[in-house]
Amino acid sequence: MPSYILALDQGTTSSRAILFDRSGAPVAVAQYEFPQYFPQPGWVEHDPDEIWESQMKAAREVIRESGITAHDIAGIGITNQRETTLLWDRKTGRPVCNAIVWQCRRTAAICDRLRAEGYEEMIRTRTGLVIDAYFSGTKIQWMLDNIPGIRTRAEKGDLAFGTVDSWLVYRLTGGRLHVTDPSNASRTLLYNITEHRWDRQIFETFHIPEALLPDVVPSSGVIGETDVSLFGTSIPIAGIAGDQQAALFGQGCFAPGEVKNTYGTGCFLLMHTGDRPVASSGGLLSTVAWGINGHIEYALEGSIFVAGAAIQWLRDQLGLIEQAADSEALALSVEDSGGMYLVPAFVGLGAPYWDMYARGLMIGLTRGTTRAHIVRAALESIAYQTRDVVETMTKDTQIPINSLRVDGGTAANEFLMQFQADILQVPVDRPAVAESTARGAAFLAGLGVGFWQSRDDLPVNQDIHRYTPHMAESMRDQLYDGWQEAVRRSRGWEREVNKVKN
Ligand code: ADP
Q: Of all protein residues, whose CA lies closest to atom 15 belonging to ligand 1?
């Protein structure tokens, strides 16, 4: 048996390839950022070819750098930014337009219409989701309605819809497979999570032709092989999961009540809920964790759209820092945020608010406000948003969260981790290998090819660093009250200014 599993982790800002050995250690990593396109305020796009090329570059580099060959790889696991929507020509493999990224708000008006027409309850019970521009369904609709000639080609069966996993598998197999897994399917707004199939009533309501939809295959198990031309030999593709579900798997959250929070571009807190979806009364999503051997497990999710992306914004749009990591020292250079708050509602607010019209704000500015205060407020906003979700989740499940397992690129920030523990008043546990997402994909693929025999056999336990809360309760409450007030003031902004303009 070959000695490695290759995980392809196609994120929102970069594509990574990581080689894992049998002990679960990442033995080599390659990563390439790719361009983000913002054609209009609130719009976000990626070029599908840039996604593919950056992913392939990372995969080839990791193989080359580690001195192995493709023969040493037992299987490939894919994990990906979810909901991001692609449409391509089945024959040529050419995308018909840029990918519409999960953060993109261009379909807010379509969502308003669906809600006004009374579809909210039907969508929630069948898909576990709320009607929001975040999910793929309305993005597909937008493409079909706005790109000339597309609808006819879609109806004839000439086009394929896919989330990023589908796109990568399609390209990896030389165009032979058009598939997705249940965890990704459950983010499209088109998938019935209790009946485990595309929901005809929904895709017909959305006027989305069935011919566009991929086949749904298990999250773990061999589904195909890579085209020989790519790596010199074919490699089994044996695992697929959306990034957040993969992280849940990678953190070993296999039992009901187990929770993880991933701090990447956004922040995603997921709790495993067992064999049944748990309905939320407070703005969380019921979602498929993974589907293996015809058996589906579920999770409850709080999705925060902007976390690490706020740090990127400080770097790229404001030029306040040179690198994301600089934010830590700057935040620690001041005692507090000087009474200011930053609500990074750049693309509206996700859980638990679901306000597509909220926009970012900074409030509490004085003549004394410095760049360090702004940077600190941006990091603090990530912890406050997480508390918003934790409070909702505790209410919905009645399961107290006694500690929080964390991972993701932004979790590298020590200041943030300590502040998170303080604001939640629960310990925060960060594993030494923060690559839970890629690890989860590797685990799914490894189980799929028999590299590991069972979940008990998976090397999930590892070094954990614990951040223990020590902030005084009065301080914590005062800070959080201020945050809630700042959020209140950011709500509905886009709608309000449009009223004024009209
Ligand atoms: P994704 O998979 O969503 O692309 P990653 O898990 O790779 O995200 O994390 C990337 C994010 O982490 C970026 O938004 C970046 O701004 C942020 N980031 C990376 N290092 C730090 C750090 N030391 N402090 C704060 N943010 C960081």
A: 308
Q: Which atom of ligand 1 is nearest to the CA of 13?
A: 4
Tell me whether residue 22 is in a domain: no
Q: What is the Cα–Cα distance from 342 to 338, expressed in whole angstroms?
A: 12
Q: What pLDDT is attached to residue 502?
A: 64
Residue 449 within a domain? no
Pocket of ligand 1 (CB under 6 A): 11-14, 264-265, 308-309, 311-312, 324-325, 327-328, 408-410, 412-413
With beta carbons less than 8 A apart as the criterion, state whether 132 and 303 touch. no
Q: Whose CA is nearest to atom 22 of ligand 1?
A: 325
* pLDDT, tens only, 317-359: 999 999 999 999 999 999 999 999 999 999 899 999 989 899 9
CA gap 370, 375 in Å, rounded: 9
Residue 313: CATH number of its domain: 3.30.420.40
What pTM did the predictor assign? Answer: 0.90
Instruction: Give the number of domains in the chain.
Output: 1
Cα separation, 180 vs 240, whole angstroms: 8
- pLDDT score at 257: 86
Is residue 163 a part of any domain in this protein? no
Residue 502 or residue 90, greater confidence: 90
State which residues form the domain around 335: 308-389+472-501
